[in-house]
Structure formats: structure tokens, C-alpha cells
Amino acid sequence: MNSVVALDVGGTLMKGAVVDRDGTARAVEQRPTLRQPDTVEGILAFAADLVASAGSPAAVGLAVPGIVDEVRGVARYSSNLGWRDLPLRDIATDRLAVPGGLDARRAGRRGGRARVRCGTRGR
Fold it and tell me: What is the CA radius of gyration of the chain?
């Protein structure tokens, strides 16, 4: 568990990477964000591919646009993705079998937090 998966979901494009303990980003990819009703499935498929590339990542961090309840892991509202009260963290954790976090999309903050929480910061 020397890596984490970071996924930044935008209205039209998703960017993802596996980030190693030393901060090196590998398996860096971009994919289009699918429109409803396929948005969540597209996010989870991309995350699953990154998890497979990572082997056994310590965590998966998802950054999504809109209003997010970070404590509960719920995407409260996203106008461009059509979400309201979506428990995305729990959905992703169940599907990927990896601990996860959900954050409002703010310059990749979730990936950095995952590194700090997993003890990989600054190594």
C-alpha cells in the first residue's frame, strides 16, 4: 500500500493518477466525463482501472464539482453533472473495496489529503 488513487471529475473531463509514496504520479490518464445516466458508472470504471494499475492502493480520493458534504461523503448538488444528494464516497468504497474520500473540486486537494492520511506526505 505505497500509493493512492486520485481522481478529479470535471463537467466534461476526468483526470486521474496513481500517486506513489514519494509523490510520483504514474498511470496518469484523462477520460471524458459521461453524461447522465452514465456519469457515476463512468467515474467508477475509471477509478477501478486506476486501482488495478496501483495494485493495492491505500485510498481513493475523488474530487467532484459542486457542493459536497465531506464528512458524510455526499455530493449534495452539482448542476453540471445533475447530482443531488449522491452518497458517492460510500458507492465508490463499496464498489472499489478501497477506503475513499470525497471532496469538492479544489485544485486536487483530495489527492494530497489521501497522501497525508496514508502517511505518504513528503516521502
Answer: 13
